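Entry — protein

Goal — fold tokens:
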Amino acid sequence: MKEEKADISSSYAEKPRNDIYSEDHLRLKVRTMAFKYVTKADGSKQDFDKEKIIKTVLRVGGGEVDRNTAEKIADEIEERSYEGISTKKILEMLFDEYLKPYKTIIPFRNNLRKSISLLRSKPDFEIYIQLLLEQLGYTITPNCICQGKCVEHEIDVIARKGTETILVEIKHHKNHHTPTDLDVCRNTRAVFEDLVDGYKDGKNALPITSAMIVGNTKFTRHAERYSNCRGIELLAWYDLESIIEKKKFYPITLLKGLDKKENHRLIKENIITLRQLVETDANQLAKKLELEHEIVENWISKSKQILFD
């Protein structure tokens, strides 16, 4: 496949403009490739985005794949893709054919997006996001009741950093293909305004400066347009994924071999991230969970490979 590309390049250099590989022909080919679309799991269509493949290769490659190699892999997948190809098929090609030689820890970990969706909305995902905000340098006040001008509001998180005091709404979808819609954004804005007015009237002591919504899925276009207009910061899935990968702040659901009951028992012991798991004494944790020491030690060993290899 790469040799064919080389032949095209050399043929174009040697042959006249009316040749099959003329400049106009190549421009047409580029335009055609640019408008290729893919079919997502929910049936919707979107433009083929080679940069997403490159980012996935670099992320999963764990430092063993450089940018040049990632671009070559993305080029080959683009050439092999056809109009309307499913994102599932693209990922199958990527993992089954291209990434096997590079990532030894893949067998130990689940898909990150699926892992986040496996967390319970309350309390798991809320606690996880609270911990992540702390990693980003915020001081947090979780799960508080705040008086607005009109009524009281239950707030997921108040996050503070410097002169910022941010109202944070946390939205979790079990189905990670379900987008967060406009109503969530409108409700958040209404709460924000009521709390700001309540502060002005002396009904609360929160000088809130802005609002943020953190979710494990994307936002609808209407939600994005409204939030941009009304000054609400959106932390959607791809933003969240980038932060998690950069910080290696993985949830325990990322680790293969844990069943739902074990996940819940670990979270009950205040262990919701792999980082917390590797910092735990294996003997003590095994006793608390009433499990064999070897089982817990195996979890910790695999977690260390994901985090530090």
Q: What stands out?
A: The beta strands are 37-39, 45-47, 85-86, 139-147, 152-161, 164-171, 210-215, 232-235. The longest strand covers residues 152-161.
